[in-house]
Amino acid sequence: MAFIHGKSTVITLDGDDLSAYTNTSELTLTADSHDVTTYGKNSHVFSGGLKGGTATMGGIYDSTASTGPRAVIKPLIGTVVELIRKPEGTGSGKPTDTVDVLLTQYVETNPVADMVTWSCEMTLSDDVASTTQGA
């Protein structure tokens, strides 16, 4: 079994690389569930439906970053853009997930005794294209 460290993750939004500002990201894939149980059954029977999901990312706020999260993400709220996530980093044979996302939320958190952080939430808009990076 090969374990992968998260530090190499690469994440871009609308063509902007936010990896240097990000310390957490998540891609959640879901599917609708339809109850198709009929008379005479003792248990539920289900059928799958449309796929969907969400993506999140967040990190430490950087006030000097003209291409950082605040500058990049805030103008994109309510729009659909491309998200590219490379969970194992960049390199031949490593996976890449590409999907259009609707940016639904951007949050800045200001704790009194810690660093300012940021996070955003996205809803997947269409299929996730999972590919392997070439040489």
Task: Give your account of this protein's structure.
Strands 1, 2, 3, 4, 5, 6, 7 and 8 form an eight-stranded antiparallel sheet that branches. The protein has one domain: Elongation Factor Tu (Ef-tu), domain 3 (Beta Barrel). The chain is globular, with a radius of gyration of 18 Å. The protein is mainly beta and 135 residues long. It has one helix spanning 69-73, and strands spanning 10-13, 16-17, 24-35, 46-60, 80-86, 95-109, 117-124, 129-132.
Key structural traits:
135 residues; mainly beta; Elongation Factor Tu (Ef-tu), domain 3; 8 strands
Question: What is the strand and helix layout of this fold?
Answer:
Blueprint: E1 10-13, E2 16-17, E3 24-35, E4 46-60, H1 69-73, E5 80-86, E6 95-109, E7 117-124, E8 129-132
Antiparallel strand pairs: 1-2, 1-5, 3-4, 4-7, 5-6, 6-7, 6-8
